[in-house]
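Shapes recur. Our protein:

. . .
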Amino acid sequence: MDMWDVMRQDDVGNEYLVASFDSRVSALARALVLESGVPHKQHYWVAGPKGPALSTNRELYLHFLQLGQEARSASWSLSAFLRALWRVSGPLRDRSGVEPDDVAAMFTAATLCPPPPFDPAWRTRDLSLAGDEPADHADWERVLLSQLADLEDFAERPPGPRARFGVEAPRPPGSGRRATPARWYNFDPATYLECAVAGSVGGWDAADGARIPLPDAVGTAAPRSYVRDITDMSWADLARIAVCGQMYQ
């Protein structure tokens, strides 16, 4: 059986084994949790086979589906999950793109990391994108913080029982500009995660029980989406995942 080791290098260069995992994604997730904690001079990395664990949209979809089920069982709020996701993405900020394993690890790490508190300044900060499309980690951060600011607005003005049919974020006077549309459909981690990957890369199958196919113009409902290979993903791809989590149905 292949194994992946999370390794630590201290501030004088000594290397130590932290933990071993039989899943590359789990090992990468643990390294992200450790790297994103209290600032330190230590370095964490994963040693083991380099081959990707996830190489298709179907595999990524199933991983997100499982994460959503675990988040539901743990009674996480969407705000808490997104705050943790924001924190654990930090160690990847200097990368121009990430592999599917890194994407899965980042979202997995968010279920393992205590979320930081909400910063009220996010509600009034200008979080608009620098360009027309997300370009880097800073833009990905603006997308997440925009969603967190919206959720805090909703905490003061709840969307009501018909929220799943779509509702506009309140964005009261004094709110800063935000990088995301105001329309929301999904308010819990499980629904957010399923819609995030189904809307951005596909990979769903009606047999999974999470998605009911809708008929097209000629009345045919496809039982599944196409399975395709996925490789490196940009921060724009990650931002699209987040926006689909908010808006896709």
